[in-house]
Amino acid sequence: MSPAAAPRPTAERKRHHFVSVTYLRSWAHAGGKLHAYRCDRPTSPLHVRPEEIGFENYYYSQTREDGSRDNDSFENLFGNVETRWPRVLDAVSAGSLGPAVLLALYSMVTMMRTRVPAARDYHEALMALETRTSLKALADMGKLPAKLKRYEDELDTVEVTVNRPRTLGTMGEDMRRFGDMTRRLGFEILRDDTGIGFLTSDNPVAYFDPADAGIRRPYIENTKVEFYFPLSPQYVLHGGNRLLRHGPIPRFGGIADPKKVLAINRITSRFAYRLAFARDRSNDDLIQRHADTSPVLDARVVRRPGKVDYHIGHKFAGRPVLPKFRPEACEDGLYDEDFGL
User: Is residue 146 part of a domain?
Assistant: First the structure.
């Protein structure tokens, strides 16, 4: 009797999608492909399958304490939400939303606000700003570590990089804040009755102050909120404070005015970060018009004696070019005691 074969090693999960493939499949036409507009090259959209776009290698990987790489934990977490998405769309089409479907719906919305490059780049840019500000404060107090003295006159210009996996730790707090904000809203699911079809993007959750003419400041949370999340080309989730009076279960309605559908698509295009997606090419001009700007970090630092205040939020501007973290280029041997801590 031959010995039992050794178990085959599990294949490494390298391709991490920051836009759910299951979510994007609704925008694929009969050939199984959709149109993907890269925001840095919007005039040359790709015609691809959902599996072929919206990913980055090892985007959600973490380093374990033993130095090995965990490629699966976040992917498994997201997968538990994504597998329920087809049932959500079936329930939306049927016009019937039970508690389990609502949980799956709001879980997907929360995930697509907090896992995406727009959110992670925001935190990476903020971490770099906080590091630079702290070093400048230490320099002013004469407490800059000796190993960094040579940068003392370059603290406004020296490159500050952040190890990207650190931004994975911000998702929990982002989810909590997002949940707090959405609990102040009521929702409705609107059907496109015009045949135009809704767009989506790699940053499909959009909200803002409805009184802000032109939507100059995205992602306002401390005032009245207007909220949109495309569910498919046929349906969009719409939220607002005024809808809360109708109760926690979304109402259903239709949109017969093409201008309203185009207005929602304009919002979706403005919030797109790296990619916008469409079933056809009818919105080329709209997507291209808003491709140069996205919601990015808006920060003002106020330094006072013994205190630093950060006034942070979002604005529409060009996407930041974040320097790649290179461990070999970092200062070695800096510890808490080097900073007088």
Answer: no
